[in-house]
């Protein structure tokens, strides 16, 4: 599965702690993140993460491009609802793309934990079918 981590500044420590708690689940998946979030996670875990630019510099849009191509399977985006973000339009575009493509998206730790436990149980197997029968793949 392709999984992305995004966290606003005041949520980065919470993200790192969450990923540490579920490192055993995440280690078998292809991981992506925005810049600083990925750096912080890699400093505290053994995980390898493909890092994009930071969110305000286009990282949200880079992850959004994968969502638009239906190449992302799960996004954990710990948003700070109490702080205005200078790149709010990019954030809203990413959230909208997740809805359009049916990509599971957690914006808080409670929802993230439910999704990660489902991932660990194998409840995301349906995403493999999405990729298998994607037009243009394997002669489809």
Q: What best-fitting shape do the alpha-carbon axes yield?
A: globular
Strand order of the largest sheet: 3-2-1-4-5
Low-pLDDT residue intervals, each spanning 5 or more residues: none
Give the N-to-C terminal Cα separation.
21 Å
CATH superfamily: Methylglyoxal synthase-like domain
CATH class: Alpha Beta
Q: How would a crystallographer describe the biggest sheet? A: 5 strands, parallel
Itemize the secondary structure elements and their pairings:
Layout: E1 2-7, H1 12-21, H2 23-26, E2 30-33, H3 35-44, E3 49-51, H4 59-68, E4 74-78, H5 88-101, E5 105-106, H6 109-121, H7 125-132
Parallel strand pairs: 1-2, 1-4, 2-3, 4-5
Helix pairs in contact: 1-3, 4-5
Structure overview:
The two termini are 21 Å apart. This protein has a 5-stranded parallel beta sheet, with helices on both faces. Helix 1 packs across helix 3 (35-44) and helix 4 runs parallel beside helix 5 (88-101). The protein has one domain (2-129): Methylglyoxal synthase-like domain (Rossmann fold, 3-Layer(aba) Sandwich). The mean pLDDT is 89. The chain is built from 7 helices and 5 strands, in the order βααβαβαβαβαα. Strand 4 (74-78), helix 5 and strand 5 form a beta-alpha-beta unit. It is α/β, with parallel strands linked by helices and 140 residues long. Residues 1-140 form the MGS-like domain.
List keywords for this structure.
5 strands, 140 residues, alpha/beta, 7 helices, Rossmann fold
Brief account:
The chain is an alpha/beta fold.
């Amino acid at each position: 599965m392709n999984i992305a981590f995004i966290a606003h500044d005041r949520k980065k420590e919470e993200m790192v702690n969450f990923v540490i708690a579920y490192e055993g689940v995440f280690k078998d998946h292809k991981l992506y993140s925005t810049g600083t979030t990925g750096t912080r996670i890699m400093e505290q875990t053994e995980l390898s993460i493909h890092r994009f630019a930071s969110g305000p510099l286009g990282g949200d849009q880079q992850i959004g491009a994968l969502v638009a191509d239906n190449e992302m399977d799960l996004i954990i985006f710990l948003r700070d609802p109490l702080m205005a973000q200078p790149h709010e339009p990019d954030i809203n575009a990413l959230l909208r793309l997740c809805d359009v493509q049916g990509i599971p998206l957690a914006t808080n730790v409670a929802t993230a934990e439910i999704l990660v436990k489902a991932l660990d149980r194998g409840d995301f197997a349906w995403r493999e079918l999405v990729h298998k029968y994607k037009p243009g793949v394997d002669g489809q």
